[in-house]
Amino acid sequence: MTAIVLAGGRSRRLGRNKAIELFGDKPLIQHVIDSVSQVDDDIVVVAAPKSQLPKLDNRVRIVHDCYPLGGALVGILTGLRTSKSQYSLAVACDMPFLNIDLIRHLMSVSRGFDTAIPRIGKMIEPLHAIYSRNCIDPIQTQIESGNLKISDVLDKVNVRYV
Q1: Is residue 138 a contact partner of residue 157, using CB atoms and an 8 Å limit?
Q2: 2-161 adopts what CATH topology?
Q3: Which of 44, 124, 131, 151 is most buried (most C-beta within 10 Å)?
Q4: 30 with 20: CB under 8 angstroms?
Q5: Using one digit for the tens of pLDDT, what is the confidence trace for 108-137?
């Protein structure tokens, strides 16, 4: 499985680059990379062109969004396109408390589905979820139509809610 870490956001709410924001003794993105490396050997950081990132070790591949200013859905698409795996974990760079047990569970139940996503009631967490390469075409079509909402793609793919 590949881990896709989205770091291409504009950080409008925080007002500064959250990927490099220190949390304790290291940048937020490094906490995320350290967490996902417990379950994935292939780690892809998707960033906007000209994004500032901290120095990351050699196990991390850095790629740039395939569409400028496209948001999380574009980041997921870019990550899936560059993934070496059929299934990929998608997380954001500002999630230092990822639940590794939940990620392992999502991985174990994702086979046979296009995506496995945590859900509490009607609320989903699409950036702590597993996506298969089968999502590439539906995501591409939706982006080309101008719709960047992750939740709208879920109507077009086979979803396992957890």
Answers
A1: yes
A2: Spore Coat Polysaccharide Biosynthesis Protein SpsA; Chain A (3.90.550)
A3: 131
A4: no
A5: 999 999 999 999 999 999 999 999 999 999
Token readout for 72 is 């999380």
Average pLDDT value for residue range 73-95 = 95
Which residue do the tokens 């000209």 mark?
50
In angstroms, the CA 40 to CA 137 distance is 24
Work out the burial of residue 87: count CB atoms within 10 Å of its CB; fewer than 13 is exposed, 13-18 middle, 19 or more buried. buried
pTM over 0.90: yes
Please report, for residues 30, 51, 76, the alpha-carbon distance to residue 55 in angstroms, rounded to integers and kept in the order given: 9, 12, 22
Q: Which helix (H) or strand (E) holds 140?
A: helix 136-144
Q: pLDDT class for 55, splitting at 50, 70, 90?
A: confident
Asked if 110 and 116 touch (Cβ cutoff 8 Å), the reply is: yes
Domain residue spans of the chain: 2-161
